[in-house]
Design brief:
Helix content: 40-55%
Shape: globular
Radius of gyration: 26 Å
């Protein structure tokens, strides 16, 4: 529990500081006086004035703000005197730069993190295209997949890795998707029907590749790490049973929650063995029943293909905008009624769980989560909703077209409507989060 709390504070603090720093730097660049730079919401626990700006840290790390001279926003907490260093005294284009500064910094953070991950870790590739497991009553079962099927192409696009299969599936969602499959020496076609998309989790291709029982990453302080298992080790036997695939490994490990079992593995030419006690976890079956399963804290093996610095920048940019694109699609699915909010939307509680899980698996996963959330924050902040950066941007664009700002009365009414929409959305997100947590 404590790691979840610390992780969520760390994640939100990074996102908020970067976003507000974007507004702050843009304001100073454009010659606007910044009166206050605040991270968090009251009560204030630290305050220090440096130059003309008061910097403060508050107790609730779920937001922040930059208070600029001569800027009236939805709080109406400000005063316009016409001084040359006030926000309202600057030309429209300068104010646009300031308003979009937070979004630009969030995008920059996401690109920077993903560039670093790609450069340091390389591309993670699953070099498999053979189906290993097809859950009962799943979308994969409806399509007609069977264990042992080798996927050759998706919508006439040849595939050589599981990454490419997943990418093609996601790219063609909301349409019929044709899989060319090799089964028992002959080629057949299997079809994902468009109407299945509207079913719960119909956007997930829930088949699993046939993966060897070879270890990739290990979770620190979990049973596998404690007995000395390493990346690249291949599990060959558990409790006297032969292990031939990752699916075999998962099934056998899950059947020993909190119970000792002998595990044997290959490391190069050496055969090693030890007694391991899988940690006990509560899992939920497809029918909603709770069951106890064992886990030892390992991830399956994937290849890491090194990429050069320039390519890693390109991948960082591409990954960032892919995340934004997926969020745009998800939002549209909810608005159009294709998907329920509970299937797509996640809020602070879900983020806290994700942050805690990512922190437990290592810094790379935690920073990847920060990059993903930073890109999402940029996307949602630029939406044309009053009270968000996108709403302020719309006001400025209208002022640029009309040659004068909207009246204060009109702006206040629009801001009130925007705040109502925003609060409704926050309540919806919290309801979805709490429902997911309880049920």
């Amino acid at each position: 529990m404590m790691i979840n709390i610390l992780a969520i504070i760390f994640v939100f603090s990074i996102l908020i500081i970067i976003h507000e720093l974007g507004h702050f730097l843009a304001a100073r660049w454009m010659g606007v006086r910044v009166e206050r730079f605040s991270i968090g919401f009251p009560p204030t626990i630290y305050r220090k004035k440096i130059g003309e700006t008061e910097f403060q840290i508050s107790a609730i790390p779920l937001g922040g703000y930059v208070k600029m001279a001569g800027m009236l926003d939805e709080s109406m907490d400000g005063e316009v005197t016409g001084a040359p260093d006030e926000f309202s005294s600057k030309p429209v284009w300068r104010r646009i730069v300031i308003i979009t500064g937070g979004v630009v910094m969030n995008l920059f953070l996401a690109i920077l993190i993903l560039t670093f991950i790609n450069f340091s870790e390389g591309e993670r590739v699953l070099p498999y295209t053979t189906v290993g497991a097809v859950p009962d009553s799943s979308i994969g079962a409806k399509i007609g997949f069977l264990p042992g099927d080798k996927i050759l192409a998706v919508n006439n696009q040849k595939v050589s890795t599981w990454n490419e299969i997943t990418e093609q599936f996601v790219e063609n969602l909301n349409d019929d998707i044709i899989f060319l499959v090799q089964r028992n020496g002959r080629q057949i076609t299997l079809i994902y029907k468009r109407e299945w998309f509207y079913q719960k989790e119909g956007e997930i291709l829930d088949i699993m590749p046939l993966i060897p029982a070879k270890i990739g990453e290990l979770v620190p302080d979990m049973p596998a790490a404690k007995i000395g298992l390493q990346r690249g080790d291949r599990i060959i036997r558990i409790g006297g049973e032969k292990i031939e695939s990752w699916q075999d490994l998962t099934v056998h490990i899950q059947s020993y929650p909190g119970k000792e079992v002998e595990i044997t593995w290959l490391r190069g030419k050496d055969t090693l063995s030890a007694v391991i006690t899988p940690q006990k976890f509560t899992d939920t079956k497809a029918d909603g029943q709770k069951t106890e399963v064992g886990r030892i804290g390992i991830y399956y093996y994937s290849e890491h293909r090194d990429v050069g610095f320039l390519k890693s920048i390109g991948l960082g940019i591409n990954n960032t905008f892919q995340l934004i694109y997926l969020n745009m699609r998800g939002l549209w699915w909810v608005i159009s009624g294709a998907k329920s909010a509970s299937e797509v939307i996640g809020g602070p509680i879900m983020i806290a769980k994700m942050a805690g899980d990512a922190a437990k698996t290592g810094w790379i996963n935690l920073w990847y989560l920060i990059a993903a959330l930073s890109s999402i924050l940029a996307f949602f902040n630029i939406l044309p909703i009053p009270a968000l950066d996108g709403g302020h941007l719309v006001f400025l664009l209208l002022e640029g077209v009309m040659g004068r700002p909207l009246s204060m009365k009109t702006r206040v009414k629009i801001q009130q409507i925007g705040m109502a929409i925003l609060l409704t959305f926050i309540v919806l997100v919290l309801y979805v989060d709490i429902s997911r947590l309880l049920f």
